[in-house]
Amino acid sequence: MKILISVCRTLVGVLFIFSGLVKANDPLGLSYKMQEFFEVWNFHWLDHFTLAFSILMIVFEIVAGVAILLGWRMRLFSWLLLLLIVFFTFLTGYAYLSGKVRECGCFGDCIPLTAGQSFTKDLILLVLIVFLFLVRDSIRPVLPSAGSVATLVLATVVAFAFQWYVLIHLPVVDCLPYKAGNNIPEKMKAPPGAIPDSTVITMVYEKGGKKIEFGASQFPADFDDSYHFVSRYDKLIRKGNAEPAIKDFNLITGAGTDTTQAVLGTKGFKLFVFEKEVLDEHPGWNKAFGVLLAMARSKHLPVYFITGDYDRLSALVQQQGIAADVTILKCDATAIKTAARANPTLYLIKGGTVLKKWSYADFDRALPAVNELPDQQ
Q1: Is 271 found in the same domain as 222?
Q2: Is 184 inside any structural domain?
Q3: Are strands 353-359 and 345-350 parallel, antiparallel or unpaired?
């Protein structure tokens, strides 16, 4: 029995720590996933709190995992873990059974699981945690109380510090489709061998004050002038798996022209500055960016600002007197959130391939890389 308890405790503890650390690498990713759930439930008023929820949940996962491994205060942590796994199982079960959320974000973007896989994982964890809950009185601490408390405090500090670091400097391990080495146009295509959605054209007509729907190849036998056309749409018959890794990445000029292919198809080096929204008219990264812009100008490198806040950024660029040196393009805010985990984020791109990326806090580290580039005149 002791061996079974030790194995279960180790499995649960290690899995919670691992899950927490993977999500701690990109807490914004979990925050966006929470927003997805809140949108489905119409809890939009919680959107402003999702990052705080994300950070706290990640810290709790890591600390709870450590506490289970240490066997410390099992009466308290067995209750907390049981409540947490019941909550997680509800979320993954809802995602799986409703089909409204494709992935739960349990292991972040580094280990994507389908809703069904996540639900199965949580059901297994639920069984293990219920077992630990039932035998909690027989679990003894591994370390003295002072040692356990010190270890848990250290785990808490590390969990908070690591998330603070990646929120400022970008994820340590980049698992996003825009990571260095990826070609953006290729990632915008469906993966090889993918199965597309199966759809049929559905016609909507009105007859006698009632709307009637039927397939484009299955017109009613009595179809005549008494039927009045209303609309047509594609009705999904079977969901495929042909979704590209990068979606909704469209670069639009101020005049409304889609210039995505023109920009990404241009050979040579270029700089992208993703700025989802203008937060400060006098940001601390201005000095380093000013040097980068001077280097780009001398080497004839095009510089593109990609933003969801076009009007404010255009006004700021005019105010700074750099309108002639940069091109401002509009892009979907969701695409920018995936491309830029920090606001702003700088990309060095060759053709359509991402070479390097830096957070606003590391613009000075981009100087040597840009300085080494050849003149593109």
Answers
A1: no
A2: no
A3: antiparallel
CB 341 within 8 A of CB 26: yes
pTM for the model = 0.80
348 close to 370: Cβ distance less than 8 angstroms: yes
Tokens 């993966």 belong to residue: 191
3-state secondary structure 29-46: HHHHHHHHHHHHCCCHHH
Q: What is the mean pLDDT of the chain?
A: 86
Residues 6+ apart with CB under 8 A from 328: 254, 304, 305, 307, 310, 313, 314, 317
Say yes or no to pLDDT of 196 above 70.
no
Report if residue 221 sits inside a domain.
Answer: yes
Structure tokens at 148: 């356990």
What confidence score (pLDDT) does residue 329 get?
95
Q: Where are the beta strands (DSSP E) in the chain?
A: 198-207, 210-215, 228-238, 269-275, 303-307, 327-330, 345-350, 353-359
pLDDT at res. 4: 86
What is the spatial distance between Cα 242 and Cα 245, in angstroms, rounded to a whole number?
A: 9
Q: Are 299 and 374 in contact (CB under 8 A)?
A: yes
* 190 domain-assigned: no
Domain total for the chain? 3
Q: Residue 100: its pLDDT value, please?
A: 63
Task: Give the type of residue at 17.
Answer: I
pLDDT tens, residue by residue, 53-101: 999 999 999 999 999 999 888 888 889 888 888 888 887 887 777 666 6
Residue 208 sits in the same domain as residue 348: no
Rounded to whole angstroms, the Cα distance separating 318 from 237 reads 50
User: Is the Cβ–Cβ distance between 254 and 331 less than 8 Å?
Assistant: no
pLDDT at 235: 65
The residue among 377, 332, 367 whose CA lies nearest residue 346 is 367
Cα atoms in the 13 Å half-sphere on the side-chain side of 272: 29
Answer whether residue 307 shows pLDDT above 80: yes
Q: How far is residue 249's CA from residue 189's CA, in Å, rounded to a whole number?
A: 11
- Tell me, yes or no, whether 232 and 338 share the same domain: no
Question: Which tokens in the block code for residue 157?
Answer: 């500090």
The DSSP code for 232 is E
Which DSSP symbol is given to 252? B
Residue 207 sits in which domain range?
198-238
Task: Round to whole Å and give the CA distance between 81 and 139.
Answer: 15
